[in-house]
Amino acid sequence: MNIQNIELDNVKTQMRRGTLEYCILLILSREDAYAPQILGELKNADMIVVEGTLYPLLARLKNQGLLSYRWQESPQGPPRKYYCLTDLGHEALQVLDRSWEEMVEQINTIRKSRN
Amino acid sequence: MNIQNIELDNVKTQMRRGTLEYCILLILSREDAYAPQILGELKNADMIVVEGTLYPLLARLKNQGLLSYRWQESPQGPPRKYYCLTDLGHEALQVLDRSWEEMVEQINTIRKSRN
DNA sequence: ATTTAATACCTTGCAACGCCAAGTAGTATA
DNA sequence: TATACTACTTGGCGTTGCAAGGTATTAAAT
Questions:
Q1: pLDDT tens digits, residue range B48-66?
Q2: Nearest to residue B104, comparing CAs of A57, A106, A40, A60?
Q3: Where in the sequence is the domain holding B75, given as residue range(s)?
Q4: CB A49: neighbour CB atoms within 10 A?
Q5: What is the pTM of this model?
Q6: Radius of gyration of chain B from Cα atoms?
Q7: Structural domain count of chain B
Q8: Count of A–B CB contacts within 8 Å?
Q9: How far apart are CA B68 and CA B84, in angstroms?
Q10: What is the pLDDT of residues A37-96, one digit of tens each?
C-alpha cells in the first residue's frame, strides 16, 4: 500500500461519516440489539466500525432521545444493554432516510453530468 | 424549526463529509474551473457548500498532488485560479468512484434487510 | 480459592474536517 | 479618491472516528 492509498482510505472514512448514525437507526428499526450485535451486522454489510466509535455514538443517540435501552441478562457473560428506537428515533429515521436519498440524487446529478 | 431538526441538520452536514472531495474531482474531471464556478455547480446539484469549506479543500487536494492550477485573467475583477485534475487526480477519482459505489451498496444492504 | 478467558461496556487523547467570520487584494465604475 | 464587485485566504470552533487502554461480570480451569 502506497502513500496515496493511505490518503484515500482517509477519504473513505470521511465518506462514511454521518451515515453511521443512519445505519445504527436502520439496524435498530428492525430489532433491538446490543453493541457487539450491531457491530456484527455492520460487518456483514462490509461496514467496518470499531467499539470506540460505536459506544459514544450510541450514547449520543440516547442523549438526543432517539434511543432508549434496557438491561438484559446474557446466557454467558455480563448483562447486555439492548437498545431500541424511541418514537422520536423513528421520526428521525424517516428524516435521515430522505437525507440519504437526497444525497445519492445529488451525487448522481454530478456524476451523470460528467462527459 | 425545533431543536431536533437542528441536530439532524448536523447529521446531514456529516453525511456530506468526504463526498465533497469526490464531488470536486467529479466536477473538475469535466472541465477546469475556479472556485466560485465550482460553488455554482454544487449549488445546481442542491449541494450547498460555502467558501470557507471549498478553498481549504482545494488547497488540500493540490497538496496531495491531485490538482494543479493556473492563473487566468478575468474579464472583470481579479484573476482567477483555474484548477484541473492531474494524472494522479484522475486515478484518485477512479478509486473514489468505486468507494462511492461500495458505500451505496453497503447502505442498501442494511436498508433492504429492514422488515 | 485463585487464575484465566471470554464477554461487554466505557473513556481519554488525538487528528481531521466543515463551517463561520473576518481579512486581504485586484479591478472597474462613480 | 471612494465605492462596489469579485476572488482568494486564514484563524478559531465544534463535531466526530479511531486507537488504545480501562473496568466489570461470568464461568471454566487450575
A1: 899 999 999 999 999 999 9
A2: A106
A3: 3-113
A4: 16
A5: 0.90
A6: 17
A7: 1
A8: 121
A9: 6
A10: 999 999 999 998 999 999 999 999 999 999 999 999 998 899 999 999 999 999 999 999
Which chain D nucleotides are covered by protein, judged by CB under 7 A? 5-11, 15-21, 24-27
B residues 44-73 near A, CB within 8 Å?
Answer: 44-47, 64
Instruction: Return the C-alpha cell found at B62.
Output: 493540490
DSSP type of residue A33: B
Nearest chain A residue to B10 by CA distance is A18
Which are the contacts of B112, defined by CB distance < 8 A and separation ≥ 6?
none
Which bases in strand C are touched by protein, i.e. have an atom under 7 Å from a CB? 6-12, 16-22, 25-28
Q: Which residue has the cell 462511492?
A: B100
Cell 464556478: give the residue: B37
Question: For residue A20, which amino acid is it?
Answer: L
Domain with residue A58: its CATH number is 1.10.10.10
